[in-house]
Amino acid sequence: MLKKHPILIVFVLLSLSLRAQVNRYVVFFSDKAGTPYSVNVPEAFLSARAIARREAQNIPVTNADLPVDPDYVSGVNATGAEVFFTTKWLNGALIQADAGVISSIEALAYVDSVVYVAPGSKLSSSGRLSKVEEELQVEEVTDNQLGMLGLDLLHQEGYRGEGLIIAFFDGGFKGVNTVDAFQHIYDDHRLLYTMNLVENNDNVYQYSTHGTRVFSATAAFLTDAYEGSAYNADFMLFVTEDAGSEYRIEEYNWLIAAEKADSAGVDIINGSVGYFDFDDAGMNYTYEDMDGKTTIISQAATFAADRGLLIVVSAGNEGNKAWKYVTAPADAQNILSVGSVDGNGQISNFSSLGPTSDGRIKPEVMAYGGGTSVINDFGSIINGAGTSFATPLITGLAASLWQLYPDLSNKELISFILEHSSNTDTPNNQYGYGIPSYRFIVSGAEPEESSYFSIYPNPVTTDLLNIRLKQRMENVSIRIYNVTGQSVGTYEITPSASMTATISLGELKKGIYLLELHSSQGVESYRIVRY
Prior knowledge:
Elements (H helix, E strand, L loop, with lengths): L5 H15 L1 E8 L18 H9 L13 H9 L3 E6 L4 E7 L3 H5 L4 E9 L23 H6 L2 H6 L8 E6 L12 H5 L3 E6 L13 H10 L1 E2 L3 E2 L6 E6 L9 H16 L3 E4 L24 H11 L3 E5 L21 E6 L23 E4 L1 E6 L5 E5 L1 H18 L5 H10 L18 H5 L10 E4 L7 E6 L7 E5 L5 E6 L7 E5 L6 E9 L2 E9 L1
Parallel strand pairs: 5-9, 5-10, 6-9, 10-11, 11-12, 12-13
Antiparallel strand pairs: 1-3, 1-4, 2-3, 7-8, 14-15, 16-17, 17-20, 18-19, 18-21, 21-22
């Protein structure tokens, strides 16, 4: 029979109790009065590229950009707490500490408040998978998801994200460093930085495979097999989501990652995580909190957008659940939140809805998330379902368009994308402004401005559409695409002596279409409306 030792048992229980009191907190400082940094010398805390982004968009460096006072950090460390990261935008520090020292931290003259954000030590993890919607099905190629956004045309014209830096915030990127589809990034030295904020190291190739699949929709490339939406961009990878738990610390991880991305000169942040409920119900948000200002992660997205970065985030997968609305940070202003459609352009039933609690339209845009072709951690091409996978397609479209139109500010780029989306005239809280497409951009010329042809009538009120050529051309053909990028008609035409041809659109339903005229002179595009 095992003999009990009461004193030893009490000691062990006391040790376990003390150990269990180690939690994670955010300390907020009251000011930056003693900081050694100055807005007049931004190169001390911002990269040359980050400064150039601000200058290009007429964005001043402000007090909010100054790092926290290092003496304040030292003072917190002196209490026995461990400071892991600091946040300049919210003027605070993420710490790990025994609950017993919190009162000492709160007593410091320069501490405004201390907020509990997660239980346990920083290195703890229960191994729980992220809350994502995924379906693993048969292999598919990327023609549909790229064609829907006109990315196939952008790629043909040489715009694949070159020169842009895109940061991905997710729960893990297993296999990215070993799978062939990502090897081109390493060969070209275009993975610029990795950071694991969950464990405070640079190993992002662990935990969830969700980030791997999201990243692949933008960055992966296999000759004749797979094309990401902006696979020639430069990249940074951040683990912000703890796949083993769900606490508000993950919002602060996102905030800190956004600050690092900003300082490093990143152009676009892709975030395919969203929050409204947590393992600790006391941390849960309400719909009223989805106003773009309340949650920490939405504040972070707004801070980043205000500094000239383009923020592209998933709307959420709550559309067919009790919550149903977009999740934070999709509620933030001056960003692109992305909903999901299927291959026919119909909204996916899981795609989260708007409006925000203050009445703004959400999501802004839609992309193919109802069966997106992605790469998994074994290098296989599979299908993923969720707004998580629609988001990197929009990220790639934005990157390629920004490469094409580099003088646009981030807010101008958002407006440009919304203006060239399928539902731009009647945006709503299910479909947003619709599906954006480069085809809408290249088809925007009026008929009289076209170099080679004019079309009439437009809108098309009968079954017949006339094409008048302005000069003789060989090998003339017409291709018509619907708003999802699918070909719905191909016509070989032989112009009459008056250089006019007529085609029948009798089988086309009412809606918006893209007409491409292919000839020996090249390709011209135009948007037509079928009534």
